[in-house]
Here is the input.
Amino acid sequence: MKEFDTIAAVATSLGESGIAIIRVSGKDSLELVSSIFRGKDNRGLEDIKSYTMRYGHVIDRESSEVIDEVIVSFMKGPKSFTAEDTVEINCHGGVIATNRVLEEVIKAGARLAEPGEFTKRAFLNGRIDLSQAEAVIDIIRAKTELSMKSALAQSEGRISREIKTLRHKLLGIIAHIEATVDYPEEDLEETTSVITSSQLNSVLKEIEKLLSSANEGKILREGLDTVIVGKPNVGKSSLLNALLMETRAIVTDIPGTTRDVIEEYINLDGVPVKIIDTAGIRETQDIVEKIGVEKSKEKINEADLIILMLDLSRELDTEDIEILDYIKDRKYIVLLNKSDLPSKLDRSKLEALKSELIIELSAKTGEGIDKLKDAIKSLFFSGEVSSKDAMITNARHKQALIRAREGCAAAIEALKNTSAIDLASIDARDAWMSLGEITGETLEEDIIDKIFSEFCIGK
Ligand code: GDP
Here is the structure.
């Protein structure tokens, strides 16, 4: 069966490196690697103990030629990542060596693993649930230590535990309602309705608490989509450079689009701030400014945070005012740059804006940059940013929680009419199902496949 045959893949990233690891998982993994392994003094792997390593060579089964010098480790299921017998071959890094060893493993009978298949096995074997599996990919992709920490907490099952508790409570509520429907007696409906309403309310509150963390969670996971808009020469590139220099910036290319997009992540005390730029636009420098106000509005519409930069050594003109008017109902910060120069800007034109969101700074001297960072944090995070509480970082989880909230609310509504009490049970069941999608207990197989296909190979 495809689900549980023996699979193999390179688990490290391909390229020049000291070592590479080829991971083999499945019930035949030990036997299979054994058939291409020759240990010191001709020792094989037959008697290898779990959680130990053995030194030797991978050999070509047909020609007996040595392919690479390796160290093999063995993890007997269920105490392994996949919960199956797992063998890891540490071989020399580099594309040629790694691929030759992998090829030999495949020839010996393993199948090349699909992206995410090792993690999927861990899920299918019941070692982790879906939200924990999804956390694995978040750990790999984490942009800052804080996002890594919250993903780690999720992988350890923090969200799963909360969801399980809520589902358990819902199940009790459903059972209570159904018992009342099945054995109708005088007045029982009334009591059930009062009790279950209050229980549903407490579940609803918990769901809302989780949902309230979703905004911060999404930012931690994906970064805060930020655009810096302003006229030519106000100092946008200078600010970006100043920020990149003092924060640990991560630059990622996203290939596949006609014009490659570049995302730069600035690490603001653990909050990844994503500044999007396109390579094409960079090359032709001021093209954005040439297109003017319309292009700025387009960029503004796509962002979570708008940083509008003005030059305080110049007077405001109608275009500036138009943009100011356009952003005032969004999350924005207005920067008055070049605070080291004499001011010519008429502050009364900024009265419609919130004063705490207007920051004077100098991209040249660095003065005021700390204030900018604080403003960003207080705009998006209530209280201190931390990963202490369970945090919803995944859009799929958020959608499921929203549906669960609807289910609970509908059930509470239905309970108001005691003659329709059976309807409440249907709504509560919907909520129970929606929560189960987070942990993967009530999810369709093809959706599960889709989730794992987003992983990288070898994980
Ligand atoms: P952009 O077109 O908005 O990206 O602006 P630049 O960052 O290229 O800056 C335009 C000019 O303003 C450059 O000559 C910068 O050196 C200068 N500049 C930027 N920030 C400051 C500042 O805070 N103070 C002063 N005095 N000059 C600045």
About this structure: The mean pLDDT is 85. Residues 230, 232-238, 337-338, 340-341, 362-364 surround guanosine-5'-diphosphate (CB under 6 Å). DSSP finds 17 helices and 14 strands in the chain. Residues 158-182 form the longest helix (25 residues).
